[in-house]
């Protein structure tokens, strides 16, 4: 038995065996691995995958929370939907924040391109990643909750009515609102979202602390949901609404997902306009009015934001314990001495 263990130990620790296996694996996988690594290291590919994965994570958590509210009775609530989307956004930012910025929102991407913060050539890459991630998330939720959907709807996939289940995946306008009131609602809500996003990430203003941006953005989504989400479901995002809506069209809900009150285009167009306006409002009224930090002058000290010059040693006032001898001022320093107000007069900082 000991001999057998010794043989096995020798077999696995034999450098010739390890070298041979390693060489064999390198010969087989090296070209494929090298090519894959070269492709994945490209910035466009990494940003596409980052937007794809972050949007998928956000949408799985968000749509899953809606499914609990619609299908689960006591298992879900409107607050649960806000928490699901809010912390879903937080997780999405952690997934892709340092790679693509984790937009997860076509309106945010559009605004960054339109305001010159990002190149337009990246726009289709980001949008494609977001749309595919959102579409796959809708398919995932449909697969996970398929039996619950069929039980709740009685086998009939309805878009409206008491057994409607299409609203798990996309937003729909309630009867109490007109189409244009819903449009205005989405413009305002998305504008507030974009304005706050600029504020959270503006290093020249009062940004979120390093490492807390993801959590703060998630809290922002929750706050918008609990305060402004009742009317239209606060889509605020073409990438959140259009791909899942298209999935429901091909999954059995039919063309009605696009025909009900002609609402489908509003969550696509209104967020683009709202985010753009919100970004402009922040940059014009807040970004342009941020005071530049004062430059630190040489040979000066700052006390309570007041800049007081330090006098040269030849001009410093002698201490009370020293002999009362006149203080001589060299001719070279005389112009500076003339600019210092008398000690008997109040000191005015504007002299300096």
Helix content: 55-70%
Distance between the ends: 92 Å
H and E string: HHHHHHHHHHHHEEH
Whole-number average pLDDT? 82
What's the total count of β strands?
A: 2
Number of helices: 13
Detail the poorly predicted runs. 1-27, 294-315, 317-333, 335-352
Strand order of the largest sheet: 1-2
Spatial shape: globular
Largest sheet features: 2 strands, antiparallel
Structural class by sheet pairing and helices: mainly alpha
Rounded to an integer, what's the Rg over CA atoms? 32 Å
Assess the beta-strand content as a share of residues: under 5%
How would you portray this structure in words?
The protein is mostly helical and 352 residues long. The protein contains 13 helices and two strands. The chain has helices spanning 2-13, 15-40, 43-71, 78-96, 106-114, 123-144, 146-153, 179-201, 213-228, 238-253, 256-259, 266-285, 334-339, and strands at residues 300-303, 306-309. The chain has a two-stranded antiparallel ribbon. It is globular.
Question: What is this structure's SSE topology?
Answer:
Layout: H1 2-13, H2 15-40, H3 43-71, H4 78-96, H5 106-114, H6 123-144, H7 146-153, H8 179-201, H9 213-228, H10 238-253, H11 256-259, H12 266-285, E1 300-303, E2 306-309, H13 334-339
Antiparallel strand pairs: 1-2
Helix pairs in contact: 3-4, 3-6, 4-9, 5-6, 5-12, 6-10, 8-9, 8-12, 10-12
Which key features would you list for this structure?
352 residues; disordered N terminus; single chain; mainly alpha
């Amino acid at each position: 038995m000991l001999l057998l263990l010794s043989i096995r130990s020798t077999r696995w620790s034999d450098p010739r065996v390890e070298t041979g296996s390693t060489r064999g694996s390198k010969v087989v996988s090296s070209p494929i691995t090298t090519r894959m690594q070269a492709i994945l290291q490209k910035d466009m590919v990494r940003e596409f995958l980052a937007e794809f994965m972050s949007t998928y994570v956000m949408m799985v958590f968000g749509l899953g929370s809606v499914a609990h509210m619609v299908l689960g009775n006591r298992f879900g609530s409107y607050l649960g939907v806000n928490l699901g989307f809010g912390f879903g956004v937080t997780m999405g930012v952690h997934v892709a924040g340092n790679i693509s910025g984790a937009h997860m929102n076509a309106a945010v991407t559009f605004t960054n391109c339109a305001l010159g913060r990002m190149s337009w050539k990246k726009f289709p890459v980001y949008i494609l990643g977001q749309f595919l991630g959102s579409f796959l998330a809708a398919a995932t939720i449909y697969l996970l909750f398929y039996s619950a959907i069929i039980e709740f709807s009685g086998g009939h996939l309805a878009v409206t009515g008491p057994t409607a289940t299409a609203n798990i995946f996309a937003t729909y306008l309630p009867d109490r609102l007109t189409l244009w009131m819903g449009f205005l609602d989405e413009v305002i809500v998305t504008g507030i979202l974009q304005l706050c996003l600029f504020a959270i990430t503006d290093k020249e203003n009062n940004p979120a602390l390093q490492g807390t941006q993801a959590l703060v953005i998630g809290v922002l989504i929750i706050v918008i949901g609990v305060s402004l989400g009742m009317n239209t479901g606060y889509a605020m995002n073409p990438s959140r609404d259009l791909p899942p809506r298209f999935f429901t069209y091909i999954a059995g809900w039919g063309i009605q997902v696009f025909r009900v009150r002609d609402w489908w285009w509003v969550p696509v167009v209104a967020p683009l306009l709202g985010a753009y306006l919100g970004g402009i409002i922040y940059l014009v009224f807040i970004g342009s009015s941020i005071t530049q930090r004062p430059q630190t002058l040489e040979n000066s000290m700052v006390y309570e934001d007041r800049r007081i010059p330090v006098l040269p040693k030849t001009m410093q006032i002698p201490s009370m314990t020293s002999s009362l001898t006149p203080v001589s001022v060299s001719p070279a320093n005389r112009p500076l001495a003339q600019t210092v107000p008398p000690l008997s007069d109040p000191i005015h900082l504007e002299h300096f």
